[in-house]
Amino acid sequence: xxxxxxKLNAEWHKAHPxxxxxxxxxxxxxxxxxQKHCGCRKIPEKLVKEMKKNGIRF
Length: 58
Description:
The protein is an all-alpha fold. It contains three helices and no strands. The chain has helices at 10-15, 24-37, 45-53. The chain is globular, with a radius of gyration of 12 Å. The two termini are 23 Å apart. The relative contact order is 0.18.
């Protein structure tokens, strides 16, 4: 494990692609599920800021 980042869960990624042109809600849901099942990368800072602004806990 490099730099504390978890290993890529390729099976999860294959079964759960990010939708094309996702809405804010779809992006949030995808990233929250991603963290539960893969965690190969963090939620992008820009999205984190928007989630906090909208009162979304993670």
